[in-house]
Design brief:
71 residues, alpha+beta, three-stranded antiparallel sheet, 17% strand, globular
């Protein structure tokens, strides 16, 4: 059988979407920004978060969009 990334690529979707969600710390590292800026972006709604239990998570798609369009 195909692994998940190969199967996803076969459907015409990017295969590098894993993980779908990252924590705030990892999102900061991905974007190369500091703590103050990530929370400012969250506070102004430029980055939407998802709460699962006690964790605040961010969709990697949102990070890609932000990186492509800027702040």
């Amino acid at each position: 059988g195909l692994s998940a990334p190969e199967a996803t690529a076969k459907r015409g979707e990017p295969s590098d979407l894993y993980p779908l969600l990252v924590g705030v710390r990892q999102a900061r590292e991905i974007l190369g920004i500091g703590n103050t800026m990530i929370y400012k972006l969250i506070g102004t709604g430029k980055i939407k978060t998802i709460r699962i239990g006690r964790r605040t998570l961010i969709q990697t798609d949102a990070l890609r969009t932000l990186a492509a369009t800027g702040v």
